[in-house]
Amino acid sequence: MKNRTLFAIPDKQIYLCGHSLGPVCHAAKETLNEGLQSWSHELVGGWNKSAWIHLPQKLGKSIAPLIGAQPEEVIVADSTSINLLKCLLTALALNSQRKVILTEHDNFPTDHYIAQSITAIDPTIQVKTVANNELVAMLDETIAVLMLTQVNYRTSQKHDIASLTQKAHALGILVVWDLSHSVGAMSLACADDHVDFAVGCTYKYLNGGPGAPGFIYATKRHHERMVPMIKGWMGHKLPFAFAPDFEPAEGIKAFLTGTPAIMSLKALEGALTCFDAVDLSSLQEKSVKLSQQLIDKIQQALPMLHLVSPQAASVRGSHVAYAHPQAYAITQALISRGVIVDYREPGLIRMGISPLYIDELDIDRVVQTLIEIFESRLYQREVFQKRLLVT
Amino acid sequence: MKNRTLFAIPDKQIYLCGHSLGPVCHAAKETLNEGLQSWSHELVGGWNKSAWIHLPQKLGKSIAPLIGAQPEEVIVADSTSINLLKCLLTALALNSQRKVILTEHDNFPTDHYIAQSITAIDPTIQVKTVANNELVAMLDETIAVLMLTQVNYRTSQKHDIASLTQKAHALGILVVWDLSHSVGAMSLACADDHVDFAVGCTYKYLNGGPGAPGFIYATKRHHERMVPMIKGWMGHKLPFAFAPDFEPAEGIKAFLTGTPAIMSLKALEGALTCFDAVDLSSLQEKSVKLSQQLIDKIQQALPMLHLVSPQAASVRGSHVAYAHPQAYAITQALISRGVIVDYREPGLIRMGISPLYIDELDIDRVVQTLIEIFESRLYQREVFQKRLLVT
Question: Is Hydrolase set as a keyword in this record (chains A, B) (predicted)?
Fold first, then answer.
């Protein structure tokens, strides 16, 4: 298994925020610098000479094996929010006899907001939002699209993609999965699970850099019939013909819109090489093992922390969340001691376990630091109460 | 006036492609490197410590004076295509009794495609596309939004923003201006001209780097009533409250959607410092003077080149376009001689004059090189006939 030496993580830090923003790897620094050099020396010629124009597809091909997809089913473009908008609109158009998007209350907020954007633009579309445990019962033949995030950003609860997709398909429902909190930390099998569309984030476990563009997956089954609903010149069949009417590029490329943000893509290019030759089963195995180690040790030594993530590894993602009345102050005290974690409302400490650069010794040190923080009541200091803007 | 020494333009090159992709300036290299250092050393802490979270607004404030806007009227986000989608949807919602977007045939293709996206999503909306000289006659009280690009990407023909905006407003029509081929090369006065909304590109005359995010301007007059139609978490009033329902941030910030691409924004941050203390009237004056020099000398020495840009500087942008049956080969021959220009269908040579780094000696050398290319028939060589993917 690859390890921490690939990354520029500050000495003595244990970085448990890979579920929020992955660290920079040396390869990403190199490719970003390469991008800067091309811009300096080739200027506009970089689009051809350095093949910037092909980067969205090239990076899609690198991501494809990480989600169990074919190379031609994935492309990198825009943000996850915009990509979700594109997938939902295209899925609704494919299932146009139906007018309902079904999702769950605790989906990631921007996913809700994007669905709400669609109902604002097209009032014939309706969003049904139900509790997690009502999802299966609410599937019926009025639903056009089931929109879910596989791993819950707060609790780390993990959906069974295969099972839910199968149940949805049995009723003629298309599925759009948000893999933002999954990809890069576990096995995924979009093709085998017959997923219709998926989106995901590249700056969390994929370590692409702050705000790195997201990705879109669309199964080959839909490539012939699907229509891009947000039509931009990079998704045109012949962008440099500058035709006034939109004619979509073939396949996944039709999901491109405006000019891709090359500097951000160049950093992602290097970051993805950290996954070369990584076996996803081993990656997931390591994530599960380390998570279990953390959960077991906290249960033994720190009963005041309440586990809100599932106990069972089979339904848990790669972060672990604990509730505590002083959760925010505890995260700040941990950070002051070099254990980088984050906070989410309401009252949750999140610890992300990215199997590429976290190991067993790290987990032991995290638990030891938590014990010290509680023994010394370090977190009660006033300095740790102050809320930062980004949590 | 600032000059070429601010930029990393290869020696002996004359770079006439600033209308397509601006060169890298030394300041942009520094800020991009600063972004990489923050990511390396601060990791997720960079959102607060390096104030990444405020970059979209900070850069909007830097762009505001370049388009004659107030600092709180501009923000950097997404691509120009996506920003245009957001502006059109919001403008349509503000003028919801009307259902027509009016534009001109020769608008930039992605602007057409985005308008076509809206009609595909909401079939009650209609796009009327007319010839440039029919625009004023077609303005009437059925039109909700007039959508135009100020400077034509091919011919460089320039609209009079003040006059068209005034005529539109007199009939209750809102205007959305695309300033992609204007900003950074001329005076603009969005506030004084009462422009409702505008979008623009930051990688052309603003030199922000390949695919750098675009900007949105929305007049303060609309801030209270306008509603963001593409709702993303960064445009939420309290993004880190993670509320399931969207409540827009106040003012221009509501136009943010997903997580901004920080590495691309960091390059733009440095690039914009090249405009510090630049007087826009002088900038425009220099652009006009150099363009006139080029046009006059070509008219004298190269009658085989047919000027398709307007003769009158008052209705011309900062690039000059010539038609010739061998236009593509001529651009390639010029590039081989260090004069970097580009080609656009049908049969046009474009020469962009970015007043920040082009001077009179450059223009003389461009004309001299053109003369040599015609005398030697260099462009007739087979190697210059081969079409590249990106032109």
Answer: yes
Helix B280-301 vs helix B360-376: angle between axes, to the nearest 10 degrees?
Answer: 20
Question: Mean pLDDT over residues B288-299, rounded?
Answer: 98
Give me the active site residues of B, please. 108, 178, 203-204, 350
Please give the CATH topology (third level) of the domain spanning B4-24+279-384: Aspartate Aminotransferase, domain 1 (3.90.1150)
Whether B246 sits inside 8 A of A29 (CB atoms) is: no
Is the Cβ pair B116, A231 closer than 8 Å? yes
Closest chain B C-alpha to A323 CA, distance in angstroms: 16
Q: In the prediction, which pLDDT does B1 show?
A: 63
pLDDT over 70 (residue A1):
no
Task: Reply yes or no on whether the pLDDT at B291 is more than 80.
Answer: yes
Over residues A267-291, the pLDDT tens digits come to 999 999 999 989 999 999 999 999 9
**Domain A26-275, second-level architecture:** 3-Layer(aba) Sandwich (3.40)
Query: What mean pLDDT comes out for the span A207-223?
Result: 98
Among the four given CATH numbers 3.40.50.720, 3.30.300.30, 3.40.640.10, 3.40.50.10610, the one describing domain B26-273 = 3.40.640.10
Q: Where are the domains of chain B?
A: 4-24+279-384, 26-273
Q: pLDDT for B73-99, tens place per residue?
A: 999 999 999 999 999 999 999 999 999
A to B CB pairs, distance under 8 Å: 273
The pLDDT, as a whole number, for residue A353 is 98
Coil, strand or helix at A2: coil
CATH of A4-24+278-384, one of 3.30.420.10, 3.40.50.620, 3.90.1150.10, 3.40.50.300: 3.90.1150.10
Q: Which positions ≥6 away from B74 have C-beta within 8 Å? A: B60, B61, B63, B64, B67, B215, B216, B217, B252
DSSP codes joined into one string, A325-373: TTHHHHHHHHHHTTEE-EEETTTEEEEE--TTT--HHHHHHHHHHHHHH
Question: In the predicted model, is pLDDT for residue B129 greater than 80?
Answer: yes
Residues on chain A touching B229 (C-beta within 8 angstroms): 117, 120-121
- Beta partners for A130? A104
